[in-house]
Amino acid sequence: MKAPVVLKFGGELLDDSGRGEELKAVVASIAGIVKAGTPVTIVHGGGKEIDAALKIAGIEKRQVEGLRITDEPTLEVVVSVLAGIVNTRFAAALSAAGVAAVGLTGADGGCGLSDVAPPHKTIDGKSVELGRVGLPNKGADVGVLRTLMNDGYVPVVCSIGVTKDGQLLNVNADTMAGHLAGALRARRLVIAGSTSGVLDGSGKTVALLDPAAIARLVTGGTATAGMIAKLRACEEALAGGVDDVVIVDGRDREALTVSASGGVPAAATRIVTTVGSRS
Fold it and tell me: For the whole prediction, is pTM greater than 0.90?
């Protein structure tokens, strides 16, 4: 099997509470990518629907720099929404489009083996306890994902991690995607959201970044809280051996297809180890 591509989709693209047009567009894009013969593993979040479920349950939403602070009641909601609703719905839509999708969590096969995250150090130096939040363990076994892809299936992984003693943890979806991309030695990680990449202070898409430029964006306050988590995940993927990362608007079918095939859309952000080191 040739090196796979890891596709990460933000939960805002998978919500079908309305007409579900964005979900349909995403599914159509993936079907085309898979038909072209590209081995794919998908990772997804579900923040919008988790927020809605927390509100219904009367549980306060708490976040710090794009990371969800997760107590036990919050974790129960996260697991039920991600694994029980979003993942199943996503896999079903893909299957209906002819994609041999297999819905998974990070607990399946231990592919999302994680450790409880230490207190988070914010940009301004504060220390914040995250609760039942996980950081992927480099010893995680991604064999189940390789086996599925080798047999022509598309793993669809929601961002639930698991400790060695079986405790479930909430893992940021971008962080999970960066981890799996590195562990699978993916040739590219594509992060698809609702913006055409990383935006600068004037709202324009930044075409190319490296870790040094990422650090400037984060410390300079240009990167939003949600984008900080994405950028950290990109750094993790590059450190794990992924060739490059592309952040793209997942609603743009052409841009998503071009990114998965190895090209770079006109409106997207490509992240490399060092600017000038790759063509």
Answer: yes
